[in-house]
Each structure stands twice: as C-alpha cells, then as structure tokens.
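Model the whole thing, not chain by chain.
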Amino acid sequence: MTDRLRRTRLYVPGNNPSMVQNASVFGADSIILDLEDSIPVSEKDAARILVRNALQFLDFSNTEVTVRVNDSSTPFLGDDLFEIIPAKPDAIIIPKVESLKELKKLDIQVTIIEKENDMEVGSIKFMPIIETAIGVVNIEEIASGPRVTVISPGGEDLTADLGIERTKEGAELSYIQSRMVVAAAAAKIQIIDTVFVDVNDIDGLIQSTKKAISMGFHGKSCIHPIQIKPIHEAFLPSPEKIAQAKKIVEAYEKATRDGTGAITVDGRMIDVPVVIRSQRLLERARAGGVDV
Amino acid sequence: MDIIQTVKAGTLESGDILITISPHDSELIIELETPVESLYGEKIKQEILDFLSSLEITKGVIKAIDKGALEYTVLARMETAINRACLEEFE
C-alpha cells in the first residue's frame, strides 16, 4: 500500500450521499471521505454514520479509500475512530498533527479497536496532515511515526498559522514543502501536496502540480473532480523520458537474467536507484494510459 | 428504546432522504414520499421497519421524503435520526 500510485487524492464531503457514492468514478487514485472541515458541527454525527455505511456497503473498486477524521483537540475524534476503524478504510487522514506523541496515542486507540473487531493490528494506516509551524518543526519524527505511509502539508492552515498570505504561486510554502519532502524520503514514505484552491484556474493547477513533481511530491490533493485529469496529465512523463526509462529497465532485466553485474545504457553506468526511479516512471506512464 | 423528541436527519438533496421522527403514544406510523414509489416504495419501508425492529422500537411517527437514496443512506439517516430522537437515554 505504501508504494501505490497516488497522483490524485480527491476530497469528498462525508455527509453528501451523491458525492460519496460517485467518488470513485472520476478516476482519482485515492479519495478522502471527509468528516472534518466540510462538515458543520451539527452534522458530525450524521456524516460519521454515512461514511461508515458507505465503507461497508459500497464498492469503490481499486480506488484507495481514506477518511479524514477530526483532530485530537476536538470532542469528535474518539467517536470517529470508534465508527470508522471497524469499517476498514485503507487509511485515516489525521489533520493538524504536531508530534510523534500524538500519533503514538492514536496508535494505541486504533490498535484496541482493531483487536476488538478481530482486525489485523496495523492494517489501518495513518496519513498525517501538517498544518502548523510546530508540526513542521517536528516533521521528521512524525514521518517516522507508527502506521504512517503518507504525509501532506495543509496549505491554508499553515499559512494562517504562520500569519502569511497564501498565493497561487505558493512560494511562501516552498521551504516547508522541501523540508517535508526530505523527511518523507528519509522515512521512505510518500508525500502528497496540498490542494490548489481555485478550481477555475486549470493552468495554475498544472503549474502548481509540475512544481510539486519537481520538488519530489508523489501526488496532489484536489477538491473538485475537474482537477483530476490535469493533475494526471502533469504527472505523465515525456515520451523521451519514457523511452529512456524503458531502456534502463530492459537492460536491468536482461542483466538480472544473464547474471551480469554492472549495467550500462548509452554508455552510462546505471545503478539500482536509477532502475527503481525508471520503474516508477513507467508505472506513472502506464497509469496515464501509455502502452509501455 | 423510546423516541422522546422530534428530530430530523438527512436532506432533500438528490441521492439523500430526509427523515423526521416524532414520538407517538401507541402506534408506529411510517409515511414515505418517494419518486420511485411503485418500484422501491415497499423496499424502503421495509428497510425502515427492519431497522426499527432491530432496536425494538414499536411507537413513533417516521416521515421519510426520499430523493433517490440508496440503502446505505436510508439506514444511515435512520440511525442518525434515532440517535438524536432517543438522545436523553444516553445522557
């Protein structure tokens, strides 16, 4: 699950049956059934039950299904876990995570629920969202926390916490993004970029996605199905890069078959990390519909 | 479990169902309004009845305005409404 393709992660309000039941038809690699910001306090109970039932009744096909629970400072998290964990989402998205201690406490709570429901302990993964300066400062320990497979910055809350304005270009988040990319790579987990909030600005979305890709992000969160296709296209490697990756992977497979050690492609020595990167690039190309 | 107050759950948006539950002294009354009455009216009523039966609720008025809700939504909205209608029992 850790290495699965997550180019897009679509937020879906958890109290809207039409959106919930259609969430997987738009082609996002992952969906987030939301119990947090999109749900008013008076409807938290209703959304929690609807999302639990959706997980139990609906077939989301191959789409990864996650649930964003409410953060640990609210009175809702305990009920969220109690209802949602037994319904077996692939992961829970945890907002406003600030420390490893918080994740460890949550791990104990989820472990108890898993045991009570005869589930494999550790089967529910954690995907923390970093939305405060303290969370950024502690990002290395959070990234290596229990059950963590993906981390993400939360652009709106981060800029609010820092007291700065969020811009379309996103330069104000560059340091945080870079720091989080390094932390994710060190912990060998994935990192997914924050949302691009202007759903009418597709060019801006594409630029924001390309910037995220160049920085090392594995995917981008989105708030509207219209954003999925442009993000997937931005993640599609160029034909030249696909051809080069294919050469490298074929050379590696041949060397493995022949039992030879060093591999060279076009006169350049190729080592294992380059092979892995090429395999991932081809995976992205296949997911984008390229026959490789 | 007894229904002790009038509550609502759900909405009138497409794909949803609005459930209103009120106390009643002696009877269980289910009123359903749905655009798919001839095809699914009985099925939806049965889903509501089965849910109430599983909680041993035998008195109350349940008004349901359906906007094309699937079974998982009908059950979710019923559960939310019952939780809200019987809330004081848990407090």
